[in-house]
Fold this protein.
Amino acid sequence: MASSKKTKSTPKKGAAKESAPQTKKQIAIGRKQARQNRIIWISVASLAAIVIVILAIGIVSEVLVKPNQPVATVDGVKISMDDYQNLLRYRRYNLHASIANAQDAISNLDPANAQSEILGTIYQQQLEQLQTSLALAPQTALDELIEDELIQQKATELGITASDAEVEETIFSDIQQAVAQAPQVPITGTEEIPTPTPLPQSQVNEIYDSIVNNMGLSNKAFRDLIQRSLLREKVQDTLASQVPTTGLVANVQLIQTDTRDKATEAQARIEGGEEFTVVAQEVSSDTLTAGVGGDLGWVTTGELLARYGQEVEDTAFSADVGTVVLVESNDQYYLILVVERDENGPLPEGVLSTRQSAALDDWLTERLEAPDVQIERLLEDSQIPDDPFIQTSLP
C-alpha cells in the first residue's frame, strides 16, 4: 500500500492571505490605540466646534450686535451704534469737502489783488472753524442724534412726518440746485438772470449714486439722514410759527455820558425846554444813537441789556412815559426818555426774526435741561471709528 504524502497547497494568485491570530497583548494594544484615536478625534471635533462658535459670535457681534449697540438712550429709546457711525461718517465727509474748498480758495488768491489779504484772512478763519468742527465731530454727532430723538418726540406730538416721497424730492432737488448750470450768456443788467437748465433724471441718479458711494453709506442710511434733517426743518418751522409776535415794547430815546455832571447838565437843558434830540446830538457819546438824536426806536424786553446794562433795561420798561430819568449803568450815565409804551405791541422785526430762527434751539435747550427727560450717554472713546477721509482726496 502506497503511503500518502502531504503536500503544501499553494494559494492561488490574487487570493487574500489568512492573517495570523492576534495575541492577547496585541488585542489590548489595538484597543488602547483605538481609544486614543477616538479621544484625539473627539478633541479635534470639540476644538473645531469651539472655533466655529467663536467665529459665529464674532460675526453676530460685528453684523448684528455692534451696529445695534446703543451709544445713548433718550427716555429709554436706544440710539444705535450704526446710526451714530453713519451720521459721523456723513458729517466728516462734508467737513473734509468744505476744508478742501477753503484750502483751494486760499491757494487760488492773487497776491497782486489788494483784496487778497482780507479774503485770505476770512478764508483762514473759516478753515480754522471747520478744522475745529472736524475735531469735535464725534461728540457733536452724538449730541445731534440725542436732539433728533427729542425732535422725533415733538414731531409725533405735533403730527408731523417726513414721507419717503418728501425725502426723495428733497434729495434730488438739492442735487439739481447744486449742479445745474445756467446758460452762459452776457449779463448787461437789463435782462433777467436766466433760469438754470435742469439736469436729466438719469444724470441726477448717477450723481446721487456717486455721492452715496463716496461717503461709504448705504442708500437706506443716507435717506435716514435726510429724513431726520427734513423732520428737524419741519419742527423748526412749526415752532417758529408759534413764537408770539406781540409783547411789551417801548419807544425810547437815550443820551450817554461818561460823568454824572455831564448827564445832569444835559438833563437841565431838556427840562429847561430844549429838545431831547438836539441835546443828544451835541452831548451823547453813544455811537449807535447820537447821530439820530438818541432815538432807539421801538424796543422790547432783553434788547437793551447787553449793550447798556440792567439799569437801562429796567428803566426803559418801568419809567413814566414822557419823563427824563437819569441812571448809572456799566460805569456810564444815561438819560432815558420813554416816548411811548405798549403792553402788547408788535415786536420789532429784527427781534421777531431772531426769536423765530432760534425757536428750535431754544426748545431743545429747555428739553435737554428738563427733569423729566432721561438721557444716558454710553459712547466710549474706544468705540469712535477712525476718520476714513483723512488720507482721501474727496471729489
